[in-house]
Amino acid sequence: MKLQDVIDEIKIKILACGILESDLNDAQLKSIVQLAIRELERYWDETTRVTVPFASCIDLKGFDHLSIVKVYRAAALGGGVQDINVMSDPLVAQQYTLYSNIGTMYNLQDAIYNFAAWNTMTQIRNTMGTELRFDEDRHNEKLYIHQGSSSSRITIEYIPKINSVEDIKSPYWQDNLVKLSIAWAKIIYGRLKTSWKQTNTLWENNGQALLDEGNEELKELQTMLAQNDSLCAPLD
After folding, report:
1. Cα dist. 56→69, 143, 148, 153, 169 in Å?
2. CA 110, 116, 120 angle in degrees (round to 5)?
3. Alpha-carbon span 152 to 137, nearest angstrom
4. DSSP annotation of 83
5. Among positive and negative, which fits the CA dihedral 218, 219, 222, 223?
6. 12, 63, 222, 225: which has the fewest C-beta neighbours closer than 10 Å?
7. pLDDT tens digit string along 180-208?
8. Could you state, in order of their start, the residue ranges of all structural domains in the chain?
9. Phi and psi for 134 in degrees, rounded to 5?
10. Distance between CA atoms of residues 226 and 35, nearest Å
11. Are 122 and 46 contacting, i.e. CB atoms less than 8 angstroms apart?
12. How much is the pLDDT for 76?
């Protein structure tokens, strides 16, 4: 999604595809979208990851982010599954005894038990990249890691800052950005149209209706986003 896509949708839903006359030009609508992005950042919890060389103190200058969520070892403590030789699989090894003179059903059953234990161990080995304890100093732009790492690199999971519409990749957050932009456009446009009142006219503008509509939509969106904040899978 691009900025112009959001602006076009505002025009479609408020100005009937631009047919209705508006006091807001594209530059002003762009400012409204930026306002909606600023609002969305309060609830934005979509994370991304970056792997960097390990250090007990990492300089965060130039690292554009809202917050750091977790820090991981880049390599698991016990090594990964890829480090395990296939020939160490007990079920594979059992094939060489099953068809020999010493092969018995007891040996096969024993191998199955061994395989279950071995399979559990490989899963543990592949998921032991435990989190590291850390503190982030926002004022001095430093990340302090309080544990050593078995790897020369670590992975930082963080919430990136939204600098533009193009930074938002998830359809869920794109949809909420559009909704927030439309709500704020209604509020601002409604305030413009209600900043003065005409008397002795045969018609009335819809400024108050737009203002009320926008405020109600914004309130509902804020409530929904606050309730879904920090969930792994946001509720729609």
Report:
1. 17, 8, 8, 11, 32
2. 145
3. 22
4. G
5. negative
6. 12
7. 998 888 888 887 777 666 666 555 556 66
8. 3-44+163-195+205-228, 48-160
9. -150, 160
10. 18
11. no
12. 58
